Amino acid sequence: MKEIVGLPGEGTAYRDPKVRKGMLKDIRLALPRALLPGERVQGLFVVYRIRRSVSALVVTDRRLLTLGDASVGMPVVDDLDRRQVTEVTIERHKVFSTGAVVAVTTQGEVGLGTLDYGKETFNRLEEVLGQGGASGMPLIPTPSAQGPSVEPVQDGPHDHLPSAPPAGGPPQHPLVAQLSVLADLHERGALSDEEFAAAKQKLLSES
User: Fold this and answer.
1) Phi/psi of residue 155, nearest 5 degrees
2) Of the candidates 133, 153, 151, 129, the residue with the CA atom closest to the CA atom of residue 141
3) Which residue did the predictor score with more confidence, 62 or 173?
4) What is the pLDDT confidence band of residue 41, given thresholds at 50, 70 and 90?
5) What b/e readout covers 149-169, taking b as 16+ CB neighbours within 10 angstroms?
6) 92 close to 102: Cβ distance less than 8 angstroms
7) Cβ neighbours of residue 65 under 8 Å, at least 6 residues apart?
8) pLDDT of residue 95
9) pLDDT score at 155
10) Half-sphere exposure of 94 toward its Cβ, with a 13 Å CA cutoff?
11) d(CA 88, CA 138)
12) For the chain, which terminal residue's Cβ has fewer other Cβ atoms within 10 angstroms, N or C?
């Protein structure tokens, strides 16, 4: 694990390979204002979410935090006490190598954004959540996703995740939704031109 220097309660914490130097610098500037006295960072992950945009997921020994975009100073968007989180699921999408991170809390499900890297990052998030928290803070279980892959979650804090399209609106074709996610990843730089073209071709050939 890479050392995160300059954050209160620093030590060794996992850093997603997608957290580049520039982004890490922005997090170091923004996060200390949000951390509680003695709170320790356990992991930093790049995530994205379209509605109520987020760019990073921070796991500490006390909370799960999402941070907004660097253009607005990376403010805290979601702030979940570990004691309120009963489990965290990672709903993996096999085509795009993405995984929607959903926290199940005592007040409902909260979509924390979508990881856009790969299996190693998914596993590392599970390991970080399984480290446990500060005194009195519970472990957060991360049951492995079963059955077919599902589309990434883009819901904001305390939005219940819908199991069907909203009443009165036509359902979105799965292919359209998947292509939209793929295009978003490409625009964000998570996929190169070659990766985007290959993934798009694979998706279309399987439809």
Assistant:
1) -80, 155
2) 129
3) 62
4) very high
5) eebbbbbbbeeeeeeeeeeee
6) no
7) 31, 34, 57, 58, 59, 76, 78, 79, 80
8) 60
9) 39
10) 8
11) 13
12) C
Which pair of structure tokens corresponds to residue 193? Answer: 């031109």
Specify which residues 64 forms β-bridges with.
59, 80
Q: What does the block give as tokens for 17?
A: 């390979």
Q: Is 207 helix (H, G, I), strand (E, B) or coil?
A: coil
Q: How far apart are the first and last CA of the chain?
A: 40
Q: How confident is the model at residue 118 (pLDDT cuts 50, 70, 90)?
A: low
pLDDT at 120 over 70: yes
Tokens of 29: 């500037």
Residue type at 185?
L
Q: CA nearest 38: which of 60, 59, 56?
A: 60
| 186: Cβ contacts below 8 Å, ≥ 6 apart | 193, 195, 196
pTM: 0.68
Q: Which residue has the tokens 């300059």?
A: 6
